[in-house]
Amino acid sequence: MRKYTIDVIAGDGIGREVMPAAIRCLDLVAKAENFSITWRERDWGSERYLADGAMMPPSGIDELADGDGILLGAVGAPGIPDHVTLWGLLIPIRREFLQYVNLRPIRLLPGVAPRVPGAEHLDVVVVRENVEGEYSEIGGLAYQGRPEAMAIQQSVFTRVGVERVAAYAADLAQTRSGRLVSATKSNGIIHTMPFWDAVVNDVVNKTAGIEVEHVLIDALAARAVLRPDSLDVIVASNLFGDILSDLLAAVAGSIGVAPSANLNPTRTHPSMFEPVHGSAPDIAGKGIANPVGQMWAGALMLDHLGESTAAARLTAAFEGALEQGVRTKDLSGTASTANFTDAVIDQITTVGVVTGAPADL
User: Fold this and answer.
1) Contact, 61 vs 96, CB < 8 A?
2) What is the pTM of this model?
3) Are residues 71 and 132 in the same domain?
4) 105, 99, 81, 73: which is closest to 241 by C-alpha?
5) Residue 360 — very low, low, confident or very high, per pLDDT cuts 50/70/90?
6) Of 59, 90, 119, 263, whose Cβ has the fewest other Cβ atoms within 10 Å?
Protein backbone atom coordinates (compact mmCIF):
# COMPACT_ATOMS: atom_id res chain seq x y z
CA MET A 1 0.00 0.00 0.00
CA ARG A 2 1.26 3.46 -0.87
CA LYS A 3 1.82 5.67 2.17
CA TYR A 4 2.18 9.43 2.56
CA THR A 5 3.04 11.67 5.49
CA ILE A 6 1.25 15.01 5.42
CA ASP A 7 1.70 17.86 7.90
CA VAL A 8 -1.56 19.52 8.89
CA ILE A 9 -1.69 23.15 10.02
CA ALA A 10 -5.36 23.97 10.59
CA GLY A 11 -4.39 27.45 11.78
CA ASP A 12 -7.05 29.86 12.95
CA GLY A 13 -10.74 30.69 12.66
CA ILE A 14 -12.64 28.65 10.09
CA GLY A 15 -9.44 26.78 9.27
CA ARG A 16 -10.20 24.61 12.29
CA GLU A 17 -13.65 23.84 10.91
CA VAL A 18 -12.92 23.18 7.24
CA MET A 19 -9.74 21.20 7.86
CA PRO A 20 -11.44 18.27 9.66
CA ALA A 21 -14.08 18.23 6.92
CA ALA A 22 -11.42 17.93 4.22
CA ILE A 23 -9.46 15.27 6.11
CA ARG A 24 -12.56 13.09 6.46
CA CYS A 25 -12.99 13.15 2.70
CA LEU A 26 -9.30 12.65 1.96
CA ASP A 27 -9.11 9.62 4.23
CA LEU A 28 -12.14 8.13 2.52
CA VAL A 29 -10.81 8.50 -1.02
CA ALA A 30 -7.41 7.23 0.14
CA LYS A 31 -9.01 4.07 1.48
CA ALA A 32 -11.00 3.63 -1.71
CA GLU A 33 -7.88 4.02 -3.86
CA ASN A 34 -5.67 1.80 -1.71
CA PHE A 35 -3.24 4.25 -0.15
CA SER A 36 -2.94 5.77 3.31
CA ILE A 37 -2.12 9.17 4.75
CA THR A 38 -0.43 9.72 8.09
CA TRP A 39 -1.41 13.16 9.38
CA ARG A 40 1.08 15.06 11.53
CA GLU A 41 -0.97 17.76 13.23
CA ARG A 42 0.81 21.00 14.09
CA ASP A 43 -0.72 23.39 16.62
CA TRP A 44 0.81 26.37 14.87
CA GLY A 45 -1.04 29.62 14.50
CA SER A 46 -2.27 32.68 16.33
CA GLU A 47 -2.95 30.97 19.66
CA ARG A 48 0.63 29.78 19.72
CA TYR A 49 1.77 33.30 18.89
CA LEU A 50 -0.19 34.76 21.80
CA ALA A 51 1.27 32.14 24.14
CA ASP A 52 4.87 31.96 22.90
CA GLY A 53 5.42 35.00 20.69
CA ALA A 54 5.88 32.92 17.53
CA MET A 55 3.50 31.36 15.01
CA MET A 56 5.62 28.21 14.81
CA PRO A 57 8.62 26.88 16.74
CA PRO A 58 12.19 27.71 15.65
CA SER A 59 12.54 24.13 14.42
CA GLY A 60 9.32 24.35 12.37
CA ILE A 61 10.86 24.26 8.91
CA ASP A 62 13.07 21.30 9.84
CA GLU A 63 10.06 19.45 11.23
CA LEU A 64 8.21 19.79 7.93
CA ALA A 65 11.14 18.97 5.66
CA ASP A 66 10.80 15.18 5.63
CA GLY A 67 7.06 15.14 4.89
CA ASP A 68 5.38 14.49 1.57
CA GLY A 69 3.30 17.68 1.70
CA ILE A 70 1.67 20.30 3.87
CA LEU A 71 -2.06 20.96 4.15
CA LEU A 72 -2.73 24.42 5.52
CA GLY A 73 -6.02 25.88 6.72
CA ALA A 74 -6.06 29.62 7.28
CA VAL A 75 -4.13 32.01 9.50
CA GLY A 76 -5.06 35.30 11.07
CA ALA A 77 -6.81 36.51 14.20
CA PRO A 78 -8.26 39.78 15.47
CA GLY A 79 -5.75 41.75 17.47
CA ILE A 80 -2.69 40.41 15.63
CA PRO A 81 -1.53 42.36 12.57
CA ASP A 82 -1.86 40.29 9.41
CA HIS A 83 1.78 40.79 8.45
CA VAL A 84 2.78 39.17 11.75
CA THR A 85 0.73 36.03 11.12
CA LEU A 86 1.71 35.69 7.45
CA TRP A 87 5.42 36.40 7.85
CA GLY A 88 5.51 34.18 10.91
CA LEU A 89 4.21 31.06 9.18
CA LEU A 90 2.99 31.00 5.58
CA ILE A 91 5.64 33.08 3.83
CA PRO A 92 8.68 31.46 5.51
CA ILE A 93 7.40 28.02 4.47
CA ARG A 94 6.94 29.17 0.88
CA ARG A 95 10.44 30.61 0.71
CA GLU A 96 12.43 28.04 2.65
CA PHE A 97 10.94 25.26 0.51
CA LEU A 98 11.28 27.23 -2.75
CA GLN A 99 7.58 26.95 -3.51
CA TYR A 100 7.99 29.39 -6.35
CA VAL A 101 4.77 28.52 -8.20
CA ASN A 102 1.46 29.45 -6.63
CA LEU A 103 -1.11 27.61 -8.73
CA ARG A 104 -4.68 28.88 -8.45
CA PRO A 105 -7.34 27.20 -10.60
CA ILE A 106 -10.66 29.01 -10.82
CA ARG A 107 -13.71 27.66 -12.59
CA LEU A 108 -17.46 27.89 -12.28
CA LEU A 109 -18.50 24.81 -10.33
CA PRO A 110 -21.69 22.84 -11.02
CA GLY A 111 -24.77 24.23 -9.34
CA VAL A 112 -23.12 27.58 -8.65
CA ALA A 113 -24.42 30.75 -10.26
CA PRO A 114 -21.76 33.14 -11.57
CA ARG A 115 -21.67 36.58 -10.02
CA VAL A 116 -21.29 38.33 -13.39
CA PRO A 117 -22.64 37.68 -16.91
CA GLY A 118 -20.10 36.01 -19.17
CA ALA A 119 -18.68 33.72 -16.51
CA GLU A 120 -20.89 30.77 -17.38
CA HIS A 121 -17.90 28.85 -18.77
CA LEU A 122 -15.16 30.36 -16.60
CA ASP A 123 -12.13 28.06 -16.39
CA VAL A 124 -8.90 29.89 -15.62
CA VAL A 125 -5.59 28.97 -14.01
CA VAL A 126 -3.53 31.75 -12.45
CA VAL A 127 0.17 30.93 -12.18
CA ARG A 128 1.51 33.33 -9.59
CA GLU A 129 5.19 33.90 -8.86
CA ASN A 130 5.39 33.02 -5.17
CA VAL A 131 8.73 33.86 -3.55
CA GLU A 132 9.91 37.25 -4.82
CA GLY A 133 8.41 40.19 -6.71
CA GLU A 134 6.56 42.81 -4.70
CA TYR A 135 6.49 40.67 -1.53
CA SER A 136 10.09 41.40 -0.67
CA GLU A 137 11.76 41.65 2.72
CA ILE A 138 14.01 44.42 1.47
CA GLY A 139 13.14 47.83 2.87
CA GLY A 140 12.62 49.51 6.19
CA LEU A 141 11.21 52.33 8.27
CA ALA A 142 12.82 55.62 9.22
CA TYR A 143 11.97 58.62 11.41
CA GLN A 144 9.27 56.69 13.23
CA GLY A 145 7.03 58.82 15.41
CA ARG A 146 8.00 62.02 13.60
CA PRO A 147 6.34 64.00 10.79
CA GLU A 148 9.11 62.80 8.47
CA ALA A 149 8.19 59.13 9.04
CA MET A 150 8.81 57.04 5.95
CA ALA A 151 8.60 53.48 4.69
CA ILE A 152 10.61 51.94 1.85
CA GLN A 153 9.69 48.64 0.18
CA GLN A 154 11.77 47.19 -2.65
CA SER A 155 10.43 44.81 -5.28
CA VAL A 156 12.78 42.03 -6.38
CA PHE A 157 12.53 40.43 -9.83
CA THR A 158 15.31 38.04 -10.85
CA ARG A 159 15.76 36.49 -14.27
CA VAL A 160 15.77 33.03 -12.72
CA GLY A 161 12.60 33.78 -10.78
CA VAL A 162 10.65 35.11 -13.76
CA GLU A 163 11.96 32.43 -16.15
CA ARG A 164 10.92 29.50 -14.01
CA VAL A 165 7.39 30.71 -13.31
CA ALA A 166 6.92 31.72 -16.97
CA ALA A 167 8.16 28.31 -18.10
CA TYR A 168 5.71 26.57 -15.78
CA ALA A 169 2.85 28.70 -17.11
CA ALA A 170 3.87 28.15 -20.74
CA ASP A 171 4.06 24.38 -20.24
CA LEU A 172 0.62 24.45 -18.62
CA ALA A 173 -0.80 26.52 -21.47
CA GLN A 174 0.50 23.89 -23.92
CA THR A 175 -1.81 21.35 -22.29
CA ARG A 176 -4.80 23.67 -22.55
CA SER A 177 -5.63 26.28 -25.21
CA GLY A 178 -2.12 27.50 -25.99
CA ARG A 179 -3.16 31.01 -24.92
CA LEU A 180 -1.16 32.71 -22.19
CA VAL A 181 -1.90 36.12 -20.70
CA SER A 182 0.91 37.87 -18.85
CA ALA A 183 -0.14 40.48 -16.29
CA THR A 184 2.02 43.59 -16.46
CA LYS A 185 2.16 47.31 -15.73
CA SER A 186 5.09 48.21 -17.93
CA ASN A 187 3.63 51.57 -18.89
CA GLY A 188 3.96 52.89 -15.35
CA ILE A 189 6.45 50.69 -13.47
CA ILE A 190 9.57 51.54 -15.37
CA HIS A 191 12.10 48.88 -14.38
CA THR A 192 10.59 45.66 -13.05
CA MET A 193 7.65 45.31 -15.40
CA PRO A 194 9.50 45.85 -18.73
CA PHE A 195 12.03 43.32 -17.36
CA TRP A 196 9.18 40.91 -16.58
CA ASP A 197 7.76 41.35 -20.11
CA ALA A 198 11.12 40.72 -21.76
CA VAL A 199 11.87 37.55 -19.78
CA VAL A 200 8.36 36.16 -20.35
CA ASN A 201 8.81 36.76 -24.09
CA ASP A 202 12.15 34.96 -24.04
CA VAL A 203 10.56 31.93 -22.41
CA VAL A 204 7.49 31.86 -24.66
CA ASN A 205 9.64 32.17 -27.79
CA LYS A 206 11.26 28.85 -26.80
CA THR A 207 7.93 27.11 -26.19
CA ALA A 208 6.14 25.72 -29.22
CA GLY A 209 2.49 26.49 -29.83
CA ILE A 210 2.12 29.26 -27.25
CA GLU A 211 0.76 32.75 -27.87
CA VAL A 212 1.38 35.34 -25.17
CA GLU A 213 -0.67 38.47 -24.66
CA HIS A 214 0.71 41.15 -22.35
CA VAL A 215 -2.17 42.93 -20.62
CA LEU A 216 -1.88 45.85 -18.22
CA ILE A 217 -3.10 44.84 -14.79
CA ASP A 218 -5.84 47.47 -14.58
CA ALA A 219 -7.24 46.46 -17.97
CA LEU A 220 -6.87 42.78 -17.02
CA ALA A 221 -8.84 43.30 -13.81
CA ALA A 222 -11.63 44.88 -15.83
CA ARG A 223 -11.49 42.05 -18.37
CA ALA A 224 -11.72 39.48 -15.56
CA VAL A 225 -15.09 40.98 -14.66
CA LEU A 226 -16.41 41.93 -18.11
CA ARG A 227 -15.04 39.06 -20.24
CA PRO A 228 -13.85 36.32 -17.88
CA ASP A 229 -14.51 33.59 -20.45
CA SER A 230 -11.78 35.12 -22.65
CA LEU A 231 -9.07 34.06 -20.18
CA ASP A 232 -7.36 30.70 -19.83
CA VAL A 233 -3.85 30.68 -18.30
CA ILE A 234 -2.51 33.82 -16.62
CA VAL A 235 1.06 34.27 -15.42
CA ALA A 236 1.56 37.07 -12.94
CA SER A 237 3.87 38.50 -10.35
CA ASN A 238 3.34 37.86 -6.65
CA LEU A 239 1.08 40.87 -6.03
CA PHE A 240 -0.79 40.85 -9.32
CA GLY A 241 -1.43 37.10 -9.15
CA ASP A 242 -2.74 37.38 -5.60
CA ILE A 243 -5.26 40.08 -6.49
CA LEU A 244 -6.37 38.59 -9.82
CA SER A 245 -7.02 35.12 -8.45
CA ASP A 246 -9.16 36.48 -5.60
CA LEU A 247 -11.09 38.62 -8.06
CA LEU A 248 -11.73 35.71 -10.41
CA ALA A 249 -12.80 33.48 -7.51
CA ALA A 250 -15.41 36.06 -6.56
CA VAL A 251 -16.57 36.24 -10.18
CA ALA A 252 -16.94 32.44 -10.11
CA GLY A 253 -19.25 32.58 -7.11
CA SER A 254 -17.27 32.75 -3.87
CA ILE A 255 -13.74 33.06 -2.60
CA GLY A 256 -14.70 30.17 -0.31
CA VAL A 257 -14.35 27.65 -3.14
CA ALA A 258 -10.92 28.63 -4.44
CA PRO A 259 -7.86 26.43 -3.79
CA SER A 260 -4.18 27.23 -3.96
CA ALA A 261 -1.10 25.06 -4.45
CA ASN A 262 2.31 26.35 -3.34
CA LEU A 263 4.51 24.16 -5.51
CA ASN A 264 8.15 23.24 -5.44
CA PRO A 265 8.16 21.90 -9.02
CA THR A 266 11.58 20.26 -8.64
CA ARG A 267 10.17 18.21 -5.72
CA THR A 268 13.33 18.75 -3.68
CA HIS A 269 11.11 20.12 -0.90
CA PRO A 270 7.51 19.48 0.15
CA SER A 271 4.76 21.55 -1.45
CA MET A 272 1.93 23.20 0.48
CA PHE A 273 -1.79 23.29 -0.30
CA GLU A 274 -4.35 25.71 1.10
CA PRO A 275 -7.66 27.41 0.38
CA VAL A 276 -7.46 31.00 -0.81
CA HIS A 277 -9.89 32.27 1.83
CA GLY A 278 -8.78 33.71 5.15
CA SER A 279 -9.64 32.73 8.69
CA ALA A 280 -12.97 34.63 8.53
CA PRO A 281 -13.30 35.45 12.25
CA ASP A 282 -16.76 36.93 11.62
CA ILE A 283 -18.21 33.47 10.93
CA ALA A 284 -15.76 31.27 12.86
CA GLY A 285 -17.49 28.92 15.26
CA LYS A 286 -20.88 29.19 13.58
CA GLY A 287 -20.54 25.99 11.57
CA ILE A 288 -21.37 27.65 8.26
CA ALA A 289 -17.92 27.89 6.63
CA ASN A 290 -17.62 26.59 3.08
CA PRO A 291 -15.18 23.62 3.03
CA VAL A 292 -14.89 23.42 -0.78
CA GLY A 293 -11.68 25.48 -0.94
CA GLN A 294 -10.03 23.19 1.61
CA MET A 295 -11.29 20.04 -0.12
CA TRP A 296 -10.18 21.28 -3.53
CA ALA A 297 -6.76 22.12 -2.06
CA GLY A 298 -6.63 18.54 -0.82
CA ALA A 299 -7.44 17.31 -4.33
CA LEU A 300 -4.57 19.41 -5.71
CA MET A 301 -2.32 17.78 -3.12
CA LEU A 302 -3.40 14.29 -4.18
CA ASP A 303 -2.76 15.13 -7.81
CA HIS A 304 0.71 16.44 -6.95
CA LEU A 305 1.44 13.20 -5.07
CA GLY A 306 0.55 11.23 -8.19
CA GLU A 307 -2.84 10.06 -6.92
CA SER A 308 -4.74 11.53 -9.86
CA THR A 309 -7.63 9.08 -9.68
CA ALA A 310 -8.24 9.91 -6.02
CA ALA A 311 -7.98 13.63 -6.83
CA ALA A 312 -10.59 13.26 -9.58
CA ARG A 313 -12.81 11.26 -7.23
CA LEU A 314 -12.74 13.93 -4.52
CA THR A 315 -13.28 16.74 -7.02
CA ALA A 316 -16.23 14.93 -8.58
CA ALA A 317 -17.69 14.38 -5.10
CA PHE A 318 -17.79 18.01 -4.02
CA GLU A 319 -18.94 19.04 -7.48
CA GLY A 320 -21.69 16.44 -7.25
CA ALA A 321 -22.86 17.76 -3.89
CA LEU A 322 -23.02 21.27 -5.30
CA GLU A 323 -24.88 20.11 -8.38
CA GLN A 324 -27.49 18.49 -6.13
CA GLY A 325 -28.12 21.87 -4.53
CA VAL A 326 -26.22 21.39 -1.27
CA ARG A 327 -24.54 24.75 -0.77
CA THR A 328 -23.36 26.89 2.11
CA LYS A 329 -24.51 30.45 2.78
CA ASP A 330 -21.79 32.14 0.70
CA LEU A 331 -23.20 30.30 -2.33
CA SER A 332 -26.79 31.33 -1.48
CA GLY A 333 -27.51 28.01 0.20
CA THR A 334 -28.53 26.89 3.67
CA ALA A 335 -26.20 23.95 4.33
CA SER A 336 -23.87 23.93 7.30
CA THR A 337 -20.24 22.83 7.02
CA ALA A 338 -21.28 19.43 8.41
CA ASN A 339 -24.24 19.12 6.02
CA PHE A 340 -22.07 19.79 3.01
CA THR A 341 -19.33 17.42 4.18
CA ASP A 342 -21.87 14.63 4.68
CA ALA A 343 -23.15 15.22 1.14
CA VAL A 344 -19.61 14.96 -0.25
CA ILE A 345 -18.98 11.74 1.68
CA ASP A 346 -22.21 10.33 0.29
CA GLN A 347 -20.99 11.18 -3.21
CA ILE A 348 -17.65 9.47 -2.60
CA THR A 349 -19.23 6.29 -1.30
CA THR A 350 -22.18 5.97 -3.67
CA VAL A 351 -21.02 7.55 -6.92
CA GLY A 352 -17.39 6.53 -6.98
CA VAL A 353 -14.74 7.83 -9.32
CA VAL A 354 -15.48 10.09 -12.26
CA THR A 355 -12.53 10.34 -14.63
CA GLY A 356 -11.69 13.69 -16.10
CA ALA A 357 -9.16 16.49 -16.06
CA PRO A 358 -6.54 16.55 -13.32
CA ALA A 359 -7.59 18.47 -10.23
CA ASP A 360 -5.25 21.38 -10.91
CA LEU A 361 -6.38 22.18 -14.46
Assistant:
1) yes
2) 0.93
3) no
4) 105
5) low
6) 59
